[in-house]
Each structure stands twice: as structure tokens, then as C-alpha cells.
Amino acid sequence: MVIYLPIAELSVNMFIIFGMGGAVGFLSGLFGVGGGFLLTPLLIFSGIPPVVSVATVATQIAASSSSAALSYWRRRMIDMKLAVVLMIAGAIGTLLGVVVFNALRQLGQLDLIVSISYVTFLGLIGGLMLSESVRSIINARRGRPAPLRRPGQHSWIHGLPFKMRFKRSKLYVSVIPVIVLGVCIGFLGALLGIGGGFILVPALIYLLRVPTNVVIGTSLIQIVATMSVATMLHAVSSRSVDIVLAVILMVGGVIGAQFGARVGQNIRGDHLRALLALLVLAVGARFLVGLVTPPAERYSLTVLTGGGL
Amino acid sequence: MRGAAIFLAALLVLTGRAEAERLTISLSTSEIMVDSTFTGDTVTLFGVIERDASTISRATGYQIVVVLRGPPETVVARRKDPIALVWVNNASETLVGAPSFYALNTSGELSEVSNGPLLSRYEIGFDNIQFTYENRAVANDPAAAEFRHAFVRLKEKEGLYTERPAAVSFIGATDNVFQSGMWIPANAPDGRYTVEVFLFSGNVLLAREEGELNITKVGLEQVMYAAASDHAALYGLACVVLALLAGWLGGVVFRRD
Q1: Pairing between strand B177-184 and B132-133?
Q2: Under an 8 A CB cutoff, do B36 and A108 touch?
Q3: pLDDT tens per residue, range A153-170
Q4: ipTM value of the model?
Q5: Could you tell me where in chain B the CATH 2.60.40.3880 domains are found?
Q6: Which chain B residue shows the shortest CA-CA distance from A116?
Q7: E-strand stretches of B70-190
């Protein structure tokens, strides 16, 4: 069934988009990630303009994250104070991200920067995840117990000023790293159409030592907030949020995530992480290929005013 | 006295014109409604070349040119170049007020219709469209020709620019009643289109007539498009509320705890 996307201004097969939402939802349920870093590239590769893809995925992530955040909220697995600080910082970062997004769009370099950022981030994170999970798989094969992480009790981060007490996380840390983290995630989220959970969660655990039982719920709250702000700002500044596309992706995503979560319970954690790492690397490689292969069409047109607008 | 002289002169011109041909045109529709199921439509132009007893007979036959132009748009044409292994949007030109749609139907090859200066004056044919560039004082500046050609080529690829010789035909055995079908593709931008009809004979322009066609987007998609551009903040808010509502609903429906 062909459906017309009013903002992307093109007709797409509804079931293909629905399938993409479902597949990414399945993977996000399977791996416990938001899936923005897979969904945005998938939409771009399928011909939806990067501007619309990035802005619309922000809306989709707001929906899927709020669904998951609700379940953590019911179980009281959220540090609200930490979440509020992250949210405020995240909103500032999102604003910066949208400003940069629109500036790049005007220069005609948005697609390039988005591609380069994806290659860098996905390559880096995929590589780290792969080496970590392969090491863990090898250890398990040899019958060795996984080396227990014993991070130093105090790193340089804990020596920074402006300390704040986060009771729920049993933390007394400087707000500077919290704010920097929030701003960075908000910035990347608005620019690249990702929730940023796959960066935020490890950062909260390893840098700030947030207990694992509250880390996911807290990061989800932050993602809901920044993606809502991103949706709002993209809608006002670049008018590129496609509500029809967002709804199809949401429905597919919510359904897919349920199946993914069920399947995920039957697969070993290190195998799951290795699979996710390979997937992340594959998406990054696809962007790299797109950057270096000579384009079929060297010229492109962008309508600024008039005509169909 | 002076007023009377001007009136007399005008009258002379008018009566003088009565000896030449006059064009009367009509479009099969003056408005096209585009909804989400729109896959393109043909608009037919009908025309009559009116003559009277005093009209001199032409040794050469009539040639008809029909130009349908879409609303003007400002477009950036960009060229990708390889820079440090990566293909980057490098050079660009901004075309100001270029026709978003341009369909040329003629009764014969353009070279048979008229000579260069007339075609160029009335912007008949892709090569005669006057392109204005931002930051370039001269229209059709040859330095920007590369981008102009790319623009026309990409527009042709989208089906928005067409040149069709022999697409105007005289009806039956007449030599003064003609018709021409113009294809409006699904991706035609909406707005006010102008149709210009030129009557040529032996390289001479005998008459020119104008008409108008409106392409209007309708339906739910149009409502959403208008909302996104006219009430951006409300639209954004609606998207956020919808997302949170969908998330909440998903959480309730698939509750696992």
C-alpha cells in the first residue's frame, strides 16, 4: 500500500516503512538499545531525505523511550534528581544541535557531516563493543570467569568542584561531568537522529558510577526529554518532522520491540553484544562506502523558496 | 485636442490589428486538485485562430507554440567533488525565480517555428529560459552554464521540464482549430501556472495569448503540510504529544510487569 508522506514529499510503500520500524524495534528490544542509530541510517538509505529522517526519528525515539521509561517509572528505578539535571543539560545540547543542523543544511553539508559522524561513532563504538564481547566469549570458552571490573573508587572526575548529592544513586559528584554529558547527548541526538542511550548508559556507569539498577530508567527519561525538545525544535526551525512517517515507525517499533525483548531473553549476553557490534559496524561501513564511491549523480537541487514549498 | 489624437491613433492601431489573426484559447480545466492518490493528469488546450475577410492569406502555414510554466522557485544547484577521498558538495549556484515547471509543446521542430531572437525574447525552449543567478549581475552568465544545464537535466529527469515537438495538432482538416495535451505529473509543484500560446507563420509572431491554470493540493496530507508550515509550533507540539501518547499506550498494552 503506497502512502504519501506530506513533509518528505514522496510516496512510499507503507509496509516497507512499517517493516523497518518493526525490524529496528525488534533489534532494540533484543539488545536493549533505542535503535535511533539504526533507524535513521535505514531511512536515509531507503531514499528519505536525511533532514526528514533525522527529525522524524527524534519523534519515534520519544515514543519508544517513553514506553520503556514508563515501565522503569512503575518500578521506581529512576534517579529523578539526576534525570532532571541531565534533562536541562540535554535541552541546551539539543538547542545547539538544531542550530548546527540548520546551519549545515544551509551550507549543503548536512548529509556529509551526518555520514562522517555516523562512520566515526559507529566505527568506534562497534569496534569497542566487538573487542569486549569477543574477549568475554573467549574467556567463557576457556572456562575462565569473566574478570571482575574493579574500577578505582576515585577518578579525576570525582575531584571536580560543584558537588551535588544524588540520593537515589548514592552519589556525591560534581555536576560538571553530568552537565557535559547531557549537553553532548542532546547535541548528538538532535544532529544525528539518535537517542544516545548507547553512549549515555556506559558513560553513566563507568564515568559517574551510577548504580546499574537506576541507570537505564534515568537515561530513558533524559532521552524522552531531549527527543521531545528535538522534535519541537526541528518542527519549528526546519519543518522537517513528518508526522505520517513517525506514526508508521512508532507502531512498527512498539510491536517489534515486544518480540525482540522475548527473543533476547534466550540469547547469551556476550553473544548478543557481539551481534550488535557487527550490526553497528555494518551500518558504519555502509556510510563509509557512500562517502567514498563516486556518486551516480554529481549534481543535486535544493529548493529554497517557492515552487512546491 | 491631444486626447482626441491619441484616441484616433489607438483606433487606427485597433482596426489595423483586425487584419491580423487573433488567438482564442481555452483549457479543459482551470484547476487541478492534487490529492495523495493523484498519479498525474492531462490538461488539454484548445485554440482557434480567428480570421476575417480582410486577413491576408499566408504563404507559409501556421505554427503553434504552447508554453506552460509553473510558479517560480529559488533553487541551489550543487556539485559534488572528490576532496580527500570523500565526495563533498563543493561548488554551487543559486538560481533565482527559475520556473519550477516548464512544458513546451510545439506544432513542429522549434527551428522551423521561428528564429533565435524571437524564441529567446519569449523564453521559448530550455535554452532560451532566462536564468538569474544570485551574486551574478548578468542573466544566463556563461560562467554558471554548467549549473544551468544540470538544473534543466535534473528537472527533465523528474518529468518537470519537457519539450515536445509535434505535440500541437490541428483538429480534423482545419488549419485554424488546434489542440495540445499537457501532462501534469504527480510531482508537479502546486501554485499558479501560466500558459502562453504563440502563433507563428514564416518566422513572424502573429499573435500571443495567455491563460492560467491552478494546481492545488487537497486532502489530509495538505492539511498536515499546511499545519507544519503555518503553525509549526502547534504541529511540533502535536507530534510530541502523539509520541508520548503512543509510548504510554504501548507501555499499557504490552505491560510485562
Answers
A1: unpaired
A2: no
A3: 556 777 777 788 887 777
A4: 0.84
A5: 22-216
A6: B86
A7: 72-83, 86-99, 102-106, 132-133, 161-165, 168-170, 177-184
For residue A188, CA distances in Å to A59, A194, A214, B173 come to 15, 7, 23, 69
- Total structural domains in chain A? 1
3-class state of residue B38 by DSSP: coil
Q: Give yes or no for B40 touching A (CB within 8 A).
A: no
Sign of CA dihedral B185, B186, B187, B188: positive
Q: How many CB pairs under 8 A join A and B?
A: 197
**What DSSP character marks residue B125?**
S
Choosing among B37, B79, B89, which should be mutated to test the A contact, i.e. which has the most A CBs within 10 A?
A: B89
Cβ–Cβ below 8 Å for A6 and B85: no
Residue B211 β-bridge partners: B195
pLDDT in tens, A109-134: 998 999 999 999 889 988 988 998 88
Q: With a cut of 70, which residues of chain B have pLDDT below it?
A: 1-19, 53-55, 59, 255-257
Tell me, yes or no, whether A307 lies in a domain: no
B233, B235, B251 member nearest A70 (Cβ) = B251
Residue (of A214, A213, A204, A246) closest to A90 by Cα position: A204
A145 domain-assigned: no
CA atoms lying within 13 Å on the CB side of residue A122: 26
pTM: 0.80
Q: Output Rg (C-alpha) for chain B, integer angstroms.
A: 25
Could you confirm whether domain B22-216 is CATH 2.60.40.3880? yes
- The span from the CA of B196 to the CA of B25, in Å, is 10
- Residue A204 covered by a domain: yes
Asked if A70 lies within 8 A of B247 by C-beta distance, the reply is yes
| A301 part of a folded domain | no
Contact yes or no for A220/A69 (Cβ under 8 A): yes
Q: How many CB atoms lie within 10 A of CB A161?
A: 7
One-letter amino acid for residue A191 of the chain: L
Expressed as residue numbers, the domain containing A114 is 2-140+156-292
Of A75, A258, A307, the CB nearest to B100: A307
Using CB atoms, which residue from A4, A63, A111 is nearest to B243?
A: A63
Q: What is the DSSP letter of B61?
A: P
Identity at A180, one-letter amino acid code: V
